[in-house]
Amino acid sequence: MNTVKxxxxxxxxxxxxxxxxxxxxxxxxxxxxxxxxxxxxxxxxIQLNYIENINDTYIxxxxxxxxxxxxxxxxxxxxxxxxxYFEPKIQKVHNYSPIIYLSFMLxxxxxxxxxxxxxxxxxxxxxx
Length: 128
What we know:
Oligomer: single chain
Shape: rod-shaped
Mean pLDDT: 83
CATH class of the largest domain: Alpha Beta
C-alpha cells in the first residue's frame, strides 16, 4: 500500500459518502476511512471500523457500490473492521489490426493468383 498520498479524489469521496449512507441505519458507530492508494496508484483501500451488524447482503452491496471499480472485501470480525480493496474495472479493447492485416494479405494473394492464372491462360492459348 502506498501511504505517501492520502488525499482521496472525487470518485473515492463519492464511494465513501455512499458507504456512510448505506450503513448508517444498522451500524451507527461506523467509521469509514480512506487508507491510501495501492502500488502504482491504480487502486485504493477504504477501511470500515466498528462494524456491529454484517450479513451477505451488505457485503454484496459494498462490492457493487461503484460502476468504475471492482471491489474485494476482507473481513476481520475479531476487530470489527472491513478492508475494501478497489481496483479499476478493465474494459477489454478490441484490437482489429490482425484481422485487417490478414484480410489484406489474403486479398493480395488472391489478386496475384488471379493475374498469374490469366497470364498463364493467355500464354497457353497463344502457343496452340
